[in-house]
Write a structure and sequence with these properties.
The complex is a heterodimer. By secondary structure, chain A is mostly helical. Chain A contains eight helices and no strands. The radius of gyration of chain A is 23 Å and the shape is extended. Chain B has a domain of 98 residues: Helix Hairpins (Orthogonal Bundle). Classes of the chains: A mainly alpha, B mainly alpha.
Chain lengths: 201, 147
Amino acid sequence: METINWHSFFFLLFASLACVFALAVVLTSNVVRMAFYLVLSLGATSGLFFLAGADFVGAMQLMIYVGGTLVLLIFGVMLTAKGPFISMKTSAGEWILGAIVGGSLLTVLISSATSVDAWRAVPREDRPAASQVTATRLGLGLLGARVDKLEQTDATLAGGMSGYLLPFEIVSVHLLVVLIGSAYLARSKRRAGGRSVGDHF
Amino acid sequence: MDESALLENYLIVGALLFGTGLVGFFSRRNMIVMFLSAEMMLQGVSVNLVAWGRYHNDWGGQMLVIFILTVAACEAAIALAVVLTLFHKSGSLDIAIWQRMREENQPAYVDRDVSPDYQPDHQWPKLTPSGIEPKPDLEEITHRAHV
């Protein structure tokens, strides 16, 4: 009996799950179901990350996206889901236009992805980026030491391998500013009359 | 490692996710759905970055995906705050309500097929305020219904 190639099996499983639920997000009309389909699609994408050897990124994807962002999103759906849903149907013309633009971009991307023979090369087993525990190296890289590029002897190239400490600091301050700003934007507003802003509309 | 772990397959999956998100972003009118589609496009880019990082044996791809995750969390927070504010102002998630923010030379979007059960909100006339202005109720001002 021929042994099943489990890597191929799981790649096909996760890839088809991600794409099918992505299509379902676009085609469903119920917002709550759509958010759930997006959870499944993102979970399948994190499975793809695990298959590609990116353990830490896959775990981050599960924790931050599926655990955080989408819960926030479902809160948003619940806060805005009062009253009867007015159907926001897009006319067939807009669908066709969107499909033409998206489909042509998709054609370009897929044809360019399949056009280079070297991209079909089987990756070697001994590549460290595909076979080792990733969290320590990623953390050191974010702190400014690219331990995977220590063998770089060219001084000019080694200057560019100095890690991501400054972008890491910038993006963390960015996250803090954005969270404070969004909490300020979404606060409950009250005027001097004691009525919230929404009552005036 | 085998034939299904190729770079090409990851690129195709990333392209499919990105293209689906793009079509959704262009053709849907619900603001939350447009936001979901944008998240899906970010996912396509992340799949590409991980695959390229593995192909070039470089950890930069995965580090950039961590940055994408952070920026996506920022985007989710700010987009939901904006969507909530717009929803409080208009009572609907329809992006076409805000079409007066379009550029000046663009034609207006006309809703061609309105569903039969759609009824626009009744606009009650407002009375001109008259008489002595009542003192604001301090307790009601400082009361926070939603914390």
